[in-house]
Amino acid sequence: MSTPGKPLLRVENLVKHFNIGGPFSASKQVIHAVDGVSLHVDERETLAIVGESGCGKSTLGRVIMRLIEPTSGSINLSGEELTTVKGRALLPYRRKLQMVFQDPFGSLNPRMTVQETLGDLLRIHGLASGKSVKLRVGELLETVGLPASSAKRYPHEFSGGQRQRVGIARALAVNPSIIVCDEAVSALDVSVQAQIVNLLRDIQVEFGLSYLFISHDLMVVRHMADRVAVMYLGRIIETGDTENIFSRPRHPYTRALLDVVPIPGALRKDDRMVLKGDVPNPLTPPAGCHFNPRCPFAINRCRVEAPTLQSTGEGLVACHRWNEIPAWVDPSPPPKDSDGRLERLQARFVGNDPSPAKQPAEAGTTA
After folding, report:
1. Which among 50, 65, 154, 225 counts the fewest CB atoms within 10 Å?
2. Which residues pair with 236 in a beta bridge?
3. Is the distance from CB of 200 to CB of 40 less than 8 angstroms?
4. pLDDT tens-digit profile of 349-366?
5. What predicted TM-score, i.e. pTM, was given to this entire model?
6. How far apart are CA 160 and CA 192, in angstroms?
7. pLDDT tens-digit series, residues 93-105
């Protein structure tokens, strides 16, 4: 995995509430999508945000990108406060902070060729002009494993994996410091996911990038991330180094997420914790700990007092009873490699041989 450096992105008490109901509505209802989130991402580090659908992961990413305006809180990038910057003044920060979206087709303009999409971006930011634009676009495509000649094609002429490579090239075009990956592989075939994940890792090393990696796929997260932050109903409830989170989770919710992950070669555990019910309605979040209605360890204190993040010695956890919960045993085989390219991820793609990141993906394939 990467070797983290000094802090690059710092988020403090970030809040995003959505008011619903029209101007003539009698009731004032508020969706608590992001509810006081604090986190940091260091240079050359990958921080993963994980949780169930509806927990606020993607909203958090879009608020940090300033695609959605925050309700309150601080977003600090390289020492500069972003929440007070508006309009065209945001343009210099767009170069430092880029995004790879979940839908590789919907995030590309179907009326523009790849040359036009990437070329306009280079010209807007003053990074290339004239004949150098075409050369730079070709270099970007080759970096992500596509031939330079594919610049003439439209999005519909690519496969899903190839379109995501174009999306990654677009993010790389402006030489960013950090890329927000919002479920960047979840819309792809399983046989292609490993190729894109390994591509992201390779370009991170090559360009010294940081990632905020949003995903519900814990197997991919274990392969990608240096640290993990677990999110539930708009709040961060546990953070720590990836191996500590996966081998010694402290929060009951984190344990429940890990208990449903299919592990190749592991025995089925009889003591798995299966969550009952759905994520509570963010319009009316439970009092106290948001997880208490589904938690088998909840006590009266959990129903009235919201826990704050506290140190466990290995990370942070927001749970009143974290040190009373029985230890969780990791059922997965230990990794056999030293650089973090876990064999358990490759075992998931049995029968598929992911190509190297720099090998061009042929037209018509799923890569």
Report:
1. 154
2. 231
3. no
4. 433 434 444 444 444 444
5. 0.85
6. 9
7. 989 999 999 887 8
